[in-house]
# Entry
Amino acid sequence: MDLPPAPAAFDDSVRPRAGRGADVGTAVGLLLLEVLALSGIFGVWLMSGVSLDPSKRASPDPLEGYLLAAGVVGTLAVVAAVIAARSRAVVTAWIQCFLALVVVAGVTGSMAVQRHENHTEHPTPLPVFTGEAGCRSGGDTNECAGTGAESRPRPRRRPEEPLRG
# Structure
């Protein structure tokens, strides 16, 4: 007894190909979602360094957590590229691979900049003088107001005399 061959619907070697319109639509939709997610991550990082109080100086948060979130978006782009390649959606696969490479380059470069920033010696700010202003110019006895000291007027030099140190 000979059995008929299996129908083509059950043949694993025949894969359905995604239509060109659906492929391009999926590629554009995924690209917009990923750009929106990366813009949101970058925007939140930028807003972490903004203070509405003028007396406080705010500095942005360290990049590590935000770079991790961008790496997750890049990983999702790789997963989408693999799924698109398996369903033979060529445009989506290529765009997702390109986006994943852009994310890897951005994360790697940003990590290098952050590592350099962390190891750079930052000069300490100069101390701010908060006391009295001291003596003002002039020769009066009230020249050093509030300090209790009087200043001595400096002797004037004659034009023909050389400067003394």
About this structure: DSSP finds three helices and no strands in the chain. Residues 60 and 148 are 46 Å apart (CA to CA).
